[in-house]
Amino acid sequence: MEIDDPGHHTSCGTVENVEFSLFKCEVIFRSLKKHSKCEEVHMCNDNMACILHPGILIESQDGEEASYFCACQGPKANFPCPKCLVPKMKLDRITESFELRTSENMHSVLQKVFQASSKVTKKKILQGYGLHNINHFLWDFQFSDSYAASSYDTLHSDDLRKWGKHLWNLMLEILEDTKGLGNLTSK
Questions:
Q1: What pTM did the predictor assign?
Q2: 14 Cβ contact partners less than 8 Å away, ≥ 6 residues apart
Q3: pLDDT tens digits for 132-182?
Q4: Which of 30, 130, 125, 13 is nearest to 70 (CA)?
Q5: How do 40-43 and 59-61 pair as beta strands?
Q6: Are 110 and 24 contacting, i.e. CB atoms less than 8 angstroms apart?
Q7: Residue 175 near residue 129, CB atoms below 8 Å
Q8: Which residues of the chain have pLDDT under 50?
Q9: 176 and 80 in contact (C-beta within 8 Å)?
Q10: pLDDT, tens digit, for every residue of 134-145?
Q11: What value, to the nearest 5°, has the Cα angle with vertex 149 and ends 146 and 150?
């Protein structure tokens, strides 16, 4: 299967950036897609043959990455959460439950968009769910749900972008001072 390169992403708008993000994921995970539907036999270290069904169970992201990964419109949308359909006006109601986004229900939204006759109707449907008009690459994977896999990573939660320029360097200094640098993954 040939996937078209969507072009240089730095000159793109939001929808194009989401498409580019999902394009990269499609290229990376393309080889696993066929194996997710029909098993892959793998010989393990104990010489036992195991049947594997590859899938994406968790994706560590910050808020912006989660919006891109789930093809959601993001924090300014009427439904900004990439995990559920909480209306923007009810984000403060943390004790209430809201319908979860799933691959099935978001795919059905895009089916409604596809069947809509006018651009205005299509836009209204998409806004009603905070979605972009993009088919997610994981919808074709068995054992994978992009919305259930999305996990907000606390290391990514620094929205002021201090991690890479400040906190990471500080952590490296501390590890070096305590002789822990390079020993975190050793036995």
A1: 0.59
A2: 73, 74, 132
A3: 888 777 777 777 777 877 776 555 455 555 566 666 777 778 878 887 777
A4: 130
A5: unpaired
A6: no
A7: no
A8: 1-9, 156, 187
A9: no
A10: 877 777 777 777
A11: 85
The token pair that represents 177 in the structure block: 């001072």
Counted residue by residue, the chain has a size of 187
The DSSP annotation for the chain comes to --------GGG--HHHHHHHHHHHHHHHHHHHHHHHHS-EEEE-TTS-EEEE------EEE-HHHHHHHTTB--TTSSS--SSB---GGGTT-TTS--PBP-HHHHHHHHHHHHH-SSHHHHHHHHHTTTB-S---GGGGSTT--HHHHEEE-GGG--TTSHIIIIIHHHHHHHHHHTT-TTTSS--
Residue 50 pairs with which residues in a beta bridge? Answer: 42
At 118, list the tokens: 């006018």
- Amino acid letter for position 131: L
């793998």: which residue's tokens?
42
Give the tokens for residue 8: 């240089």
